[in-house]
Design brief:
2 copies of one chain form a homodimer. Among the domains of chain A are: about 20-85, Winged helix-like DNA-binding domain superfamily/Winged helix DNA-binding domain (Arc Repressor Mutant, subunit A, Orthogonal Bundle); about 95-205, 3-Layer(aba) Sandwich (Rossmann fold). In chain A, about 45% of the residues lie in helices and about 15% in strands. Chain A has helices spanning about 20-35, 45-50, 55-65, 75-90, 105-110, 110-115, 145-155, 165-180, 205-225, 245-250, 255-260, 265-270, and strands spanning about 40, 70, 75, 95-100, 120-125, 135, 140-145, 160, 180-185, 200. In chain A, helix 1 (about 20-35) crosses helix 2 (about 45-50) and helix 1 (about 20-35) crosses helix 4. In chain A, about 45% of the residues are buried. Chain B binds a DNA duplex (22 and 22 nucleotides) through helix 1, helix 3 and strand 2. Chains A, B: Belongs to the transcriptional regulatory Rex family.
Chain lengths: ~290, ~290
DNA sequence: TTGTGTGAAACGATTCACAGCT
DNA sequence: AGCTGTGAATCGTTTCACACAA
């Protein structure tokens, strides 16, 4: 801390809040749709509805970009489309490479909306020699050996990793060494990268687990609601013994058994599926 | 809407913060890896590093689950794996349907890690009659007509939408009517769903746009650093000299020059690629 | 002595509510 | 009369820093 500015120096310096940046693409999509229907202006209320946020948030977001609206009227659709595109850097185009052409990589390569905006798939790269030369989405797959050359010749700064988890870290290192500074990672691993490199993660299994959590809670509440006064229906999360997992049990599992002294190794082991749980997904990570 | 308990009743009642929930799967993955290497205990410091977060955050997160650690020692790996799995609802299994078996849907169906945890693909559904019966990932694709039957017979509560954007809203409505209460949406649209239904979105194009934003900023900073005080170093084609936009522009006195009159239609039109920008991706949404 | 668990401070994002422009 | 733009209030998350248990 005391050491001057620590990692990620002044990156956040002049700035649009991260949460706002993450919503700009959403607004842009809604605006593009309006633009296609030749709608000339929108109110914050309408646009917010189309983007699935509330209008106060949208107005605040736009206020970070400048004053692009007209009081009493709304926003000029075309003008906003342009301003947001520019702010996001979509007025220039970004060559992108996809590394790992398995099921997912191929799906990504075929994704239309990819090239629709400023993005252009510059190359498809895979480690399997058998893939080399094979056309995927009308483009020949190239071998990993040429990764560095491809990156530099095409001026690629954004890489998409769709390899198995085990290969991801190494691939990211090669990409970065070759000049890539932004990575979209579909492999289920935490990538460690140097400062100045941005990584965004897309992880199917994490998303499902989050849904499962809420789903389970719904079931618990339902049961609690239906099942009258149960000891710890909504109990305090008190540090004490079992209370803290009321919702968990849901359908009939005995809550008592669930909690045990932090020494119950046996139960814990039993709980894990004995199956081929491998951390590395077959070929399609996400 | 405001009838009695407003939307999302007491869902958040006794609660683990959402941000914490979103990190539990990350911890779980790191712990599973340790477990496989038969590591008996970890400190918050080590585990945090493996999960890519800082240790204070991790300890705070775990504190919401209960006191599962041992002071002076650390956390018992197996025990924590079990507790987190249980908290996330992964000790039961969740039948899932995937709707839209295009490139992406097929990739998802083939995803190994899917079934690895509590999730099981109960059915693959597609609207194309030509797909019906065809095996994907060792499973016959079924026709949309049978969607309701499939959902109820299998007790499915989680649905994955991998259809083109145009079909997503309708598919979500049918899923929900049939009993699904959690949706993972890969189609690039905002789904509107009733209260009590959870939706999570995975959107490739949004992720790329966020990266592009940061990428552009990096380029700008670099140029600014290298090339003295150049007005529009960041290649903004527009007159928007908005370089220093002072966070908040707080002190009134808007840098008027930065913004041209909200009437510049021409520029806006020019900015949009004339190409086939269609909002609906070919077959693979994400 | 070590490393967890947690109040309290700091920070960031969202929402409120209204002044001010059109 | 209407709708944006934005200070101020609120809420949620992260970080700090240290008491306390092993």
């Amino acid at each position: 801390m005391a050491t001057g500015r620590t990692h990620r120096p002044a990156t956040r310096s002049r700035g649009i809040p991260e949460a706002t940046v993450a919503r700009l693409p959403l607004y842009l999509r809604a605006l593009t749709a309006l633009s296609e229907r030749s709608v000339p202006t929108v109110s914050s209320e309408e646009l917010a509805a189309a983007a699935g946020v509330n209008s106060a948030k949208l107005r605040k977001d736009f206020s970070y970009l400048g004053s692009y609206g007209t009081r009493g009227v709304g926003y000029d659709v075309e003008y906003l489309v342009y301003q947001i595109s520019r702010e996001l850097g979509l007025t220039q185009d970004w060559p992108v490479v996809i590394v790992g052409i398995g099921n997912l990589g191929a799906a990504l390569a075929n994704y239309g909306g990819f090239s629709a905006r400023g993005f252009r798939v510059a190359a498809l790269i895979d480690a399997d020699p058998a893939m080399a030369g094979k056309p995927v989405a009308g483009m020949p797959v190239q071998h990993t050996d040429d990764l560095e050359k491809i990156i530099s010749e095409n001026g690629v700064s954004i890489g998409v990793i769709a390899t198995p988890a085990g290969a991801a870290q190494q691939v990211s290192e090669r990409l970065i060494a070759a000049g890539v500074t932004s990575i979209l990672n579909f492999a289920p691993t935490v990538l460690s990268v140097p400062d100045g490199v941005d990584v965004r993660k897309v992880d199917l299994s994490i998303e499902l687990q989050i849904l499962a959590f809420h789903e389970q809670r719904k079931a618990g509440e339902e049961a609690a609601a239906a099942g009258s006064a149960d000891a710890d229906a909504d109990g305090a999360p008190d540090a004490g013994a079992g209370a803290s997992d009321g919702a968990g049990a849901g359908t009939g599992a005995a809550p008592a058994a669930a909690l045990m002294p932090p020494a119950g190794r046996a139960a814990a082991a039993a709980a894990r599926k004995g199956g081929p749980d491998g951390d590395v997904p077959a070929v399609m990570p996400a």
